[in-house]
């Protein structure tokens, strides 16, 4: 979805939502067939074909707005992301358990705004999901027009920790962009890296 | 021999998984307000459920159940953040929060600006009094 279409869609008050074509729904169809097979615990061809028929009927009857994929997917980056994610899920649980038992009612938190680089709905949603499951934060409010997430962050004591939380969200977004972002988003990342390395050069 | 080892692994997973769910419950009681309690509701039990499902997969010793276990966990990953967001958003809007536990609130300014705009455009609204402020 282009930025214009996204804005139009976000502001749309005519009641006519933008709808997906069958080709755009292929990933959804694939997923539904897998779910069907998993539920029956039976991955034979006949069962899967029947599942596909049901999936087709479902997407015809319950039309959904399209999910626009970037057309890029890096498997190695997905592995990097996946392993970092599993490690973070474990760390998040340990952290919350520790806080619940030893800190309890004295826990301080903050609500911070993080403005993301990406304009894609899918990526923003993905970032929101991942940061809820890894240590620290969850999404309280989203501003779709400016891709800004308002997060509730647990266990922050001062401004430096707020900045640290912000940086960790940007890091999650970076990992996701490297995995499945569009080429434009990759270019933004590259520019950022260049700018920051120049700054370091000046300082040293 | 292998059976015993697998049983021990599965048993350990189940105990840790249950303890994590218990910890989530403790967090619900111990944290100061709704917004921080939601952390306890989403995080530890995601790992807890993963460990319980892994134990189940090991105990059943059948590959056919693996896709459905993976799916169960995947759906948990998809739905837990959404429910935390919905409850948190509603809680924030109805002011079910303790301001003194927040060290910064960057959303408050945005909400105040939106309220001021609303007032300018549609006149003063009757202030709700049925909320805990």
From TrEMBL, chain A:
- Which residues are the signal sequence here? none
What keywords are assigned to this protein?
Cell membrane, Membrane, Transmembrane, Transmembrane helix
- Which spans are transmembrane here? 45-63, 75-102, 122-140
Membrane topology category: Multi-pass membrane protein
Query: In which broad location class does this protein mainly occur, judging by the first location in its UniProt entry?
Result: membrane
Q: Where does the UniProt annotation locate this protein?
A: Cell membrane
Entry's Gene Ontology cellular component terms: plasma membrane
Single GO MF annotation: monoatomic cation transmembrane transporter activity
Against InterPro entries, the record matches this protein to:
Cation_antiport_E
Listed NCBIfam families? PRK08965.1-5
In which family does this protein belong, per the annotation? Belongs to the CPA3 antiporters (TC 2.A.63) subunit E family.
Question: Would you tell me the protein name for this molecule?
Answer: Monovalent cation/H+ antiporter subunit E
Origin organism of this chain?
Paeniglutamicibacter gangotriensis Lz1y
Query: Which gene does this sequence derive from?
Result: mrpE
From TrEMBL, chain B:
Claim: Transmembrane helix is one of the keywords in the record: yes
Q: Which GO MF terms are attached to this record?
A: sodium:proton antiporter activity
Taxonomic superkingdom: Bacteria
Query: Which keywords fit this entry according to its UniProt record?
Result: Membrane, Transmembrane, Transmembrane helix
Q: Which residues cross the membrane?
A: 6-29, 41-58, 64-88
Q: NCBIfam families of this UniProt entry?
A: CPA3_mnhG_phaG, PRK12674.1-2
Q: Which PANTHER family does this entry report, sorted A to Z?
A: ANTIPORTER SUBUNIT MNHG2-RELATED
Q: What is stated as this protein's family in its record? A: Belongs to the CPA3 antiporters (TC 2.A.63) subunit G family.
This protein's name: Monovalent cation/H+ antiporter subunit G
Q: Which organism is it from?
A: Paeniglutamicibacter gangotriensis Lz1y
């Amino acid at each position: 979805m282009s930025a214009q279409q996204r804005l139009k869609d976000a502001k749309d008050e005519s009641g006519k939502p933008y709808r997906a074509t069958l080709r755009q729904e292929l990933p959804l169809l694939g997923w539904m067939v897998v779910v069907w097979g998993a539920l029956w615990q039976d991955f034979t061809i006949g069962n899967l074909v029947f599942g596909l028929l049901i999936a087709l009927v479902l997407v015809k009857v319950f039309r959904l707005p399209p999910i626009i994929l970037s057309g890029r997917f890096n498997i190695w980056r997905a592995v990097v992301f996946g392993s970092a994610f599993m490690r973070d899920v474990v760390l998040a649980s340990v952290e919350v358990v520790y806080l619940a038992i030893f800190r309890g009612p004295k826990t301080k938190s903050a609500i911070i705004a993080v403005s993301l680089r990406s304009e894609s709905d899918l990526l923003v949603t993905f970032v929101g999901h991942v940061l809820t499951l890894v240590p620290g934060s969850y999404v309280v409010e989203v501003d779709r027009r400016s891709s800004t997430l308002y997060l509730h962050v647990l266990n922050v004591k001062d401004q430096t920790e707020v900045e640290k939380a912000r940086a960790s969200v940007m890091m999650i977004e970076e990992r996701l962009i490297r995995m499945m972002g569009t080429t434009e988003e990759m270019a933004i990342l590259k520019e950022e890296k260049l700018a920051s390395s120049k700054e370091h050069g000046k300082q040293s | 021999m292998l059976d015993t080892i697998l049983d021990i692994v599965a048993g350990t997973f189940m105990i840790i998984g249950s303890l994590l769910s218990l910890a989530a419950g403790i967090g619900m009681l111990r944290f100061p307000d709704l917004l921080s309690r939601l952390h306890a509701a989403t995080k530890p039990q995601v790992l807890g459920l993963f460990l319980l499902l892994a134990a189940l997969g090991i105990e059943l010793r059948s590959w056919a159940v693996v896709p459905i276990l993976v799916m169960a966990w995947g759906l948990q990953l998809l739905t837990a953040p959404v429910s935390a967001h919905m409850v948190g958003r509603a809680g924030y809007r109805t002011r079910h929060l303790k301001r003194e536990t927040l060290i910064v609130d960057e959303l408050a300014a945005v909400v105040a600006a939106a309220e001021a705009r609303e007032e300018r455009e549609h006149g003063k609204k009757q202030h709700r009094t049925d909320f805990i402020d």
